[in-house]
Structures are given as C-alpha cells and as structure tokens.
Write a structure and sequence with these properties.
The complex is a heterodimer. Chain A is α+β, with helices and mostly antiparallel strands. Chain A is 33% helix and 29% strand. Chain A has helices spanning 23-44, 52-59, 69-84, 123-137, 223-235, 238-247, and strands spanning 2-9, 12-19, 65-66, 99-102, 107-110, 142-147, 151-155, 164-169, 177-183, 186-192, 201-203, 208-210, 214-220, 252-257. In chain A, strand 11 and strand 12 form a beta hairpin. Chain A is globular and about 55 Å long. Chain B folds into two domains: 12-174 and 385-403, NAD(P)-binding Rossmann-like Domain (Rossmann fold, 3-Layer(aba) Sandwich), CATH 3.40.50; 191-376 and 410-435, Dihydrodipicolinate Reductase, domain 2. Chain B is an alpha/beta fold. The longest helix of chain B is centred in the last third of the chain and has 21 residues, at 405-425. Chain B is built from 14 helices and 16 strands. Chain B has helices at residues 12-20, 26-32, 41-47, 61-71, 86-95, 105-110, 123-135, 150-161, 177-187, 217-220, 231-248, 328-337, 385-398, 405-425, and strands at residues 52-57, 76-82, 100-102, 116-119, 139-142, 167-169, 194-202, 254-260, 273-279, 285-291, 299-305, 308-311, 316-319, 344-345, 361-363, 429-430. Classes of the chains: A alpha+beta, B alpha/beta. Chains A and B meet through strand 1, strand 2, helix 1 and strand 8 of A and helix 12 and strand 14 of B.
C-alpha cells in the first residue's frame, strides 16, 4: 500500500491511497502527481497573487489579458459548462456574459468592473481528471484519490472489497448515516452547507447565497462533470433539475434535505 | 514469490539507518540494534565494486525467492546452485543460468570459488549444512528456524563462537523498517510499560505442495512431518517470538500450550492449531495462536503497553487515552492495515472500524509502508528478507559479523522447540539451564 498526502493544495488536503503497485513504481507516480498538482495550484489559486488566475483577475478589468494555452482551454470548458447548466455554474459567480473571449489572441476581458474568476467549483474536478489520467497511463488499477474527502475518485477496488465504499453522514446530526455509496471507476463530488460552513454557495441567477440545510452528492465517470453538477444542482429549482438531467450523463445524484 | 525485479534492491532502509546518525537518539537506537550499524548506503558504495560469490543450497520456492532478490543486488554474484530435487534445480538455473549446478551440498562447500552459502532447505538439514559450511570456511546465511533440535541449535551457537566466519539467519523483521521504528518507539516509552504481547498467524490453506509421485511426499511436504519440521512453531512463530523478545529485551522463562490437528487430518504429523502462553520473569506474557483453517484474523504482532498498543505487523499503533476523532483517510489506511472493508466517511469523521472502536490508528512510518498479510507461503515482498540478505552479502565482502542476529535466532528457535515440547508433553516447561547463553536476560 502507498499513501501520498499533500496537506495544503487547491485550498484543501489531497490524499492518494494506491494498492497493488510496487513501492518504487508508486513513488514515481506520486512524484508525477505531486508536480502536476503543485503546477495547477500555482495556476488556479486565486489567493496566490502570482498565480495566472490572479493576474487575470487583477488586469482583465482594464484590458484584455492573454492567457496560457491550458488556461484558455480551462476557461473554454467553464464557458461550455455555463451553457450546459443554464447559467447555474458560473465562474464569475455573477454574470458570465460580461466576459469576452478573443479566440485569436487567446485573451479575456471583463466588461464589468469588479468581475473576477473563481474556479472553486471546478478546479478540484479538473485536477482530479489529470490525476486519474496519470494513474491510468501508469497502469494503476486500484487507487482511492480524494480532495478533502469532498471530491473523490475511486479506481478499481479496495484490497479487501470489490469497490471503494464511502458513507455520507448528516453534518447536522453527528452519527446519522444518510447513505453509503460503492464507487468503482467513478468520481463522487459533494457539496452543501455544514453547521460550521454555511452560505458559501451562491446562486448566480438570483445572486442569493444558499443557506439551506442541503447536501448533494453526484457520482459520475467524469470528475469535472461531478464537480460542476453538484454546484449547479444545489442552486437548481425543480424545472432546472429536470433540464440538467438531459445535459449530464451521471451515475447517480443524491440530494438530501436535512 | 517476489515480483520480477528489473531494479535495484530498495535502498530506503539503508538511507533510514544513515539518517538516524543525524537525529537525536539515533546513536542510541543503533546502539540497541547493533546489527544495523553498518547497513548504510555508504557502506554499500564501498563494497559494490566487489562481488560476494554466493551459492544457493536448496532451490525450492524460498530459495528462488532469494535468487530473485540476489539478482537485484550490485554486490553479489550467484555462482552455484544446489538441490537434490532436479525440477527445483532446473527452475533456479533458469533464473540464474550462469551458476554451476550441484546436487550434493558437500561438493559446493569444496569449491574455492564460493564466499558464502544461502541455505533454504528443510529444517532438519539446517544444522548439518550450517556446521559443514562453517567448517569449510564459508560465510553462511540460513533460513529460519535455526535448527531442528535444541542440541543442534547449541552446537551451531558454539561453533559460531569459535569461528571467524559470518553467520546470518533469516530473521527478516530485524531488517523491516516498520519493526525497527516500532521497536524503537516501544523502547523510548511511547506505549508505556510493556504489559503483554499478543501474536497470531492465521491462514486457511493446507500448507501442502503438489507431489509428482508418492515417494516424494515426505521430502516435498517436509513441513508436515515431525522428522523434518517443527510445524507452525518453527515455520511461523519463530519470527513473532523473536519480535516479542526484541521488544521486551527479555527471554521467557517458561511456556505452556496446547496443540492439535483440528482440520487438516490428511496424514500430517504437525499441529494445524496451536495456542501457547510464554511467561517472562516480570509477569508479562505472550499469547501466541496459530491456526491454518481460518484466516480471518490474519497475522499480527501486537506489543501491549499500559499507554498504548504497537501493532508491528500492520505498521500501526494506538494510544490508550487519545481523542478518537480521525480523518476519513486515516480510517481508510487503518482499514486496509487491518484488512477491513468498510465505508470511508465522506467529508467528516463518523465511521470507525468495528473491531477497534475507540482507537485512533497512528502509522509507525510517516508516509508509505508495506503490510505483509502473512498469507504467502514463500515470502512477502519488502518484508526485510531482501535487506537482511543484502547485509549478509555485504558481510561476505567485509567479513564483519552480524551482531546479535545469531543470538536472536537461537533464542526464538529454542522457544519454539520448548513450545512444541510443552504441547507434546502437556505441561509447563521451564527454559533449560543448559541452553541459556550469556546474552539472555530472563
């Protein structure tokens, strides 16, 4: 068994539990993953003033800012997700339509003062996808990967089971288990309010902060889909939820009113 | 069986020993574990230009396991292979085609081309082969247990005292990083006073090998017959009793036990179920249990202290009065360590393993470690076997004796044999005066 851990990355903790691969092979894979995550953190962390996202946030209000190739593809994907979620997923947290993209120069420009990007509901999914790719290209068959146990990818199975199981506890009622999910080759993202951390999810359509006692878990083959959809689902009303289901191919969505 | 290696033997233990030199208490640790003193990367560098010329005597599954490990070592060359069972000899020759083949170990010992021998034969052959090899001037690495009888153990011990040759027995836990660190923690008081030990080894397997013709039954399935084997005690318990003595710095003064053939009634003569209590002079006891018709409990070496429990085999320790909260990922790690498959709590700490409800597991080693589930009949990967063999090959070049290794092997083997005697005679057996040696503290 190999356990790799980064205590502060992408705003949370990252853990990887790899079984069945040799010690040196595991260590090499871990080095690769660590390097990848640190690079991504440096690019996407808006609390790091030198990160690319900070540079965009500081300057794109004044004039178009040319972005790296990878940042460009990330922003394009976020734009696609904005459409797929009918505006519920919005990295500006307010009005994505006030961002202009210049295809030719790969530059972005904010048309509204004070606008900024926050990749909080996306970055962990994106990073997870990269991690999973590294694992798969290195022929890893069984691995449990997680960001702060809120974004998980389970590859293969636990050494003593046929899947990787996670349980969902009611954050408002310690000890009450709401459900259990057996994951195998799929991602699980969770979002919601807890007694200590509420009102951190905003509905971009009405700009209201969500303070409901809710917990949403989305299981999907695709870590980015799972991450984006949990955020969108919390903000969606009944009609939008039905529409979201037509846009995403998920394994399951669990929505708890607590 | 060791996985195919296209790499060097892992150097992390050597680096670990080297790093100890630079930390507080490191020198004291090395003082208490003197067999590790020269097991450093620098020492390997010194010797790796030279080759220790090694012969393998006994090329069955365990012999082949050692061959795989030897092939990955820079300071070693396998020059001879010896087995009286041609299929095993040929299998070994396929792994090491340049080595000369022998069917009689005495001929191997006559060869001036050989510095050291690795003996992986049935237990009853250990003593004659070790004694002959030492007399022939060879350095010797022999599988555990030390020998078939107490008389033979003492003969080997005595011969070694007057020999300038190197002698190692494969007590691999002495070279397993999590054991070394765990014992260091015990000695430094992390779990308080040692108040007990619980060791067990469970498997669910008949312990048999395929036999091509009935005449070969007793030589291939030598583990099952009393003429050649001490059964579960000499094959499994020997490692675990050694760890208990290492942790307590004592030798038990007496033993009681019961042994039976409970399930595998197939003509075997050795017990398939043993339960023993070893008693140290200060009242601390080892509860030892081994059963090979149920594997639920796996293999564990637990040292119990008044402040905590060191589970050396799983690389995890528990403290008696620690806050029970733990992160989900820690729970997952301890689950795997304890071979439990249960759910990991999502973003919160709610779940705890059913069997260890009130305890938070702490890993002995900070990052990654190997857990031996004890199920392999040949040997686990990275359980210290490759490291101790690497140390032996180094010693074949330097001539430096492995401090304490013979004494540890001697003590644990005598204890296994006393355990067998206690079960056989159904009475409490005291450690015989004639087999006490100066290093023993009762």
């Amino acid at each position: 068994m190999f356990h790799g851990s980064l205590s502060r990355i992408m705003g949370t903790r990252f853990d990887l539990v790899l079984t069945g691969a040799g010690r040196e092979h595991s260590a090499r894979i871990w080095e690769h993953i660590q390097y990848e995550l640190e690079s991504l953190d440096h690019m996407l962390n808006r609390f790091d003033p030198d990160s690319e996202i900070s540079v965009i946030n500081n300057r794109a209000g004044n004039s178009p800012v040319q972005v790296s190739h990878e940042m460009w593809s990330i922003l394009q994907e976020c734009r696609d997700y904005h459409q797929k979620t009918f505006g519920l997923f919005d990295i500006t947290l307010s009005d994505f339509s006030r961002v202009t993209f210049h295809e030719k120069e790969h530059s972005v420009h904010f048309l509204q003062p004070g606008l900024s990007f926050d990749l909080g509901g996306y970055a962990k999914g994106y990073a997870m996808k990269k991690v999973v790719n590294i694992l798969k290209t290195n022929n890893v068959e069984n691995c449990f990967v997680d960001f702060g146990l809120s974004a998980i990818f389970a590859l293969g199975h636990h050494p003593y089971g046929d899947s990787w199981k996670v349980s969902i506890e009611n954050p408002f009622h310690k000890g009450e288990i709401l459900g259990e999910i057996a994951l195998k080759n799929s991602a699980l993202s969770t979002s919601g309010n807890t007694p200590n951390y509420a009102g951190h999810i905003v509905n971009p359509l009405n700009r209201k902060w969500n303070r409901e006692k809710r917990l949403v878990c989305v299981e999907s083959d695709d870590p980015v889909d799972a991450e984006v959809l949990t955020t969108a689902w919390i903000a969606a009303d009944t009609i939008l939820k039905e529409k979201l289901l037509t846009q995403f191919d998920t394994k399951q969505i669990l929505d708890y009113n607590l | 069986m060791s996985e195919k290696k296209d790499k060097q033997v892992d150097l992390s233990l050597r680096q670990f020993i080297k790093d100890l030199g630079g930390i507080t208490g490191g020198a004291a640790l090395l003082g208490a574990m003197p067999w590790l003193q020269s097991f450093t990367p620098d020492k390997l560098k010194e010797v790796e230009k030279e080759k220790s010329r090694i012969a393998i005597i006994g090329t069955g599954s365990r012999g082949q396991y050692h061959i795989h490990n030897l092939l990955a070592m820079p300071h070693t060359e396998i020059v001879a292979l010896c087995d009286n069972y041609p299929p095993n000899l040929e299998a070994a020759a396929a792994l090491s085609p340049k080595a000369k083949k022998y069917s009689d170990y005495r001929k191997v010992l006559e060869s001036p081309e050989i510095d050291g021998v690795v003996i992986a034969t049935p237990l009853n052959w250990h003593a004659p082969m070790v004694l002959d090899a030492l007399s022939a001037g060879k350095h010797v690495f022999c599988e555990k247990s030390m020998a078939y009888s107490m008389e033979q153990c003492k003969a080997i011990y005595d011969a070694y005292q007057s020999s300038d040759r190197v002698l190692y027995f494969c007590m691999q836990r002495m070279f397993d990083e999590k054991y070394i660190k765990g014992i260091q923690m015990i000695h430094s008081g992390v779990i308080g006073d040692v108040v007990g030990a619980r060791c067990h080894w469970f498997r669910n397997h008949d312990w048999r090998r395929a036999v091509p013709t009935p005449q070969l039954e007793r030589s291939i399935n030598w583990r099952l017959y009393r003429e050649s084997s001490g059964g579960l005690m000499t094959e499994l318990a020997t490692h675990q009793l050694e760890v208990c003595n290492w942790a307590t710095k004592r030798i038990p003064g007496s033993v009681m036990g019961m042994g039976d053939i409970v399930y595998w009634k197939d003509g075997r003569e050795v017990y398939d179920s043993v339960n023993l209590v070893y008693h140290y002079g200060n009242g601390v006891k080892i509860n030892y249990e081994s059963l090979i018709s149920n594997k639920y409990n796996g293999m564990e070496d637990q040292i119990l202290g008044h402040k905590g429990t060191m589970n050396l085999a799983t690389g995890i320790y528990y403290l008696e009065n620690e806050d029970v909260g733990k992160s989900g990922i820690e729970q997952l790690l301890s689950q795997i360590g304890e071979k439990v498959f249960t759910a990991v709590p999502l973003a919160g700490a709610s779940w705890r393993p059913e069997t260890k409800k009130e305890y938070k597991p702490f890993p002995i080693l900070s990052e990654n470690f190997n857990v031996n589930d004890g199920l392999s009949m040949v040997g686990a990967v990275n359980d210290g076997s490759d490291q101790i063999l690497s140390a032996f090959c180094q010693a074949c070049i330097t001539g430096e004796k492995g401090k304490d290794i013979v004494e540890e092997a001697y003590s644990s083997t005598i204890l296994c044999l006393l355990g067998n005697q206690a079960m056989e005679e159904q009475r409490k057996i005291d450690f015989p005066e004639e087999y006490k040696i100066p290093s023993m503290n009762f």
